[in-house]
Amino acid sequence: MAGKPKLQDFDSSTVIAVSNCRRSKFKVTNCKAHIKLSVDPITLKFCLYGFVEAHNHSLVDTDNMEFTKKRRKLDFFDQQFIHKLSLNKIGATVAHRLQCSLKGGHQNVRGTKTDYKNAARDIRLFIGERDAQMIVDTMNARKSNLPNFFFEFTVVGNELRSMFWADDVSKCNYEAFGDVLGFDATYHTNLYKMIFVPFTGVDHHKKCVTFGAGLVYDETIESYIWLLKMFLKAHKKQPLLTLTDQDASMKQAVAAVFDKSIHRLCMWHIVKKIPAKISGDSSSNADLRKSIHKLVWNLFITPAEFEERWQILMNGLELSDNNWLNEMFSIRDQWVPCYFREFMMCFDIAIDGQRQKQRQAEFDSNTTTPFMPNKIPIEMHAFDIYNRTIFLEEQKEIYRGLTHCFIIRCEELGGIKFYTIAHTNKSCKIVNEYKVELDVRDNTVSCTCMCFTRNGYLCRHVFFVFRFNEIDKIPDKYQSSRWDRDVLPNRVHAISNRYAADNDPESVIRNEIFDLIGQCTIHLRRKPDKLSALSTQIREIRDIIYEEFPSEPDCNNKSAVISDIIGQPENIEVTIHPPQGIRNKGCGTNKRLIGPGEKAVENHKKNPRLCHRCNKYVYDHDKRNCAKVQAAKEAAAAAAKEAAAVSGSGR
């Protein structure tokens, strides 16, 4: 409290404005309390020779020490905690609340909520407009230091326009599972409105995997062509099947670069548009979406059956005249699975989460054994060759071959057996018939359901025929390497390939110290005397360290601390800037447009009310503005007009 507060001088002309000035609080009161020290020239020790005890202010209560200036100063770990939580979309306010919960109350936490918010602000200011330069430098460092890391970017007029990257794990995943590629350009970064384009596929556990990612400035044909060329440069081969949304520029880019790949539309994007393209209440849209989803994903129907059932569905819902649905039906061969059954095989922190799921699935496959009550030989063989996820699929097909299939007719010609297999539902009603051909000379088999061609593993109809012919093993030609247990090399799961893993030697040692202290504390958690002794020992170690190193390194240099936290140098030369003035689709207004789908979700949060006109529980109208009221008014007006016409003709 020493020192004098800086008071602003006001003359008579400004006194009126004082009430409008910002109210200030002073931390200094010109307090005279102090001690006087001198150094003994012989012993070089401090000697106390004066002490003034009187204070002109109240002293801080011991229960409120967290509000003092010293206790409000955040240390390195507090600021690192704030930054790491921000990377997981957790703000400073929640970060402070979490610290209070973890440490047992506000009294044990350095800094207030405001201090945490200020620290987050300082980190953002440190990055400033250097983020484009930082991301390029980070990617270039990975390209130089990580094996098989691919990165390319373009700059126009010192502005970052596009970039694509793929690491070694992404390349291994694409090599094994790159038969089907999906990429979606509907993601936009929040600040600069660049388009984020992840390239994804499905691994041998039927989990999503990423083959690479890119950022582009706009949604032009040229931008997409550059992105796909970089993808091809990184991965060397084209996918068999490419799935995208209905973007016209993307369609032309795929045709230009992936000239050997079949291009189809993603059904998810099409079905998602249903609420926006079809008028009517939310319940009708929900039923339609469910019905279309069930019809489209019926993998056992033929194109002719799909077309017949589609017309029945449209007529039943009175949507035969809907232009958008008719347009989607006209291009059905580009998005309905039954029309391309021969090919339908079915960052940083986010990627690590994705890859962690893959490692978990691998671990489960290698360390657990599923329940096999019947011990069927071909089932045991499937367990030996497939990973857990695909084995469970095959196990289901084997059992359903036993319970839902039977032979209608069988013929044999030249060593080839021709079976007609009935496919029944749970009610034992025949829903379909399939033709299975088996060459008993080499166990070559085919089925008209095309399950193996579509999914890479055999169907229930084939397993039924195998059992009928006492074939106890899956032939080698039908063991797709895509679903093998060991399809990926071991390096894919190495800790060195995990972006979220902090492998810095200093960080590793720090984390080890925290773990050691935590382990000791856990073992002594019910022994207060031992815990007290441990605390004393740790305090003694701290005092020794403080004596040798009195101050924290760069404790007064805020930028140096933030530089260590985010892993970027304090002074970098900025030659690449973020793009400015991006105007892509959806940028027409500052106010976000809310579509019917989102409105339906919001309406479902409300309680529906009964319309006494149509006798339905609804969200969007009542008896005053019910459609039936309008229809009745129009009918009455038409009747009156007709009556007037009849009366006029009678005269």
Quick rundown:
The chain has seven domains: 1-59, no CATH class; 69-128, no CATH class; 146-266, Nucleotidyltransferase, domain 5 (2-Layer Sandwich); 275-334, no CATH class; 377-481, no CATH class; 505-550, no CATH class; 601-651.
CATH class of the largest domain: Alpha Beta
- The second-level CATH architecture of the largest domain is 2-Layer Sandwich
Going by helix content, strand content and strand pairing, the class is alpha+beta
Distance between the termini: 105 Å
Element layout with pairings:
Layout (H helix, E strand, L loop, with lengths): L33 E6 L6 E7 L16 H4 L3 H12 L4 H12 L9 H15 L3 H15 L4 E7 L2 E8 L1 H10 L2 E4 L3 E2 L6 E8 L5 E9 L4 H15 L5 E4 L3 H10 L4 E4 L1 H6 L1 H4 L4 H15 L6 H14 L6 H8 L18 H19 L9 H9 L2 H16 L1 E9 L2 E9 L5 E10 L4 E4 L3 H5 L4 H9 L36 H19 L4 H21 L9 H9 L29 H9 L4 E3 L4 E3 L8 H24 L1
Parallel strand pairs: 5-9, 9-10
Antiparallel strand pairs: 1-2, 3-4, 4-8, 5-7, 6-7, 7-8, 11-12, 12-13, 13-14, 15-16
Helix pairs in contact: 2-4, 2-21, 3-4, 7-8, 11-12, 15-16, 16-18
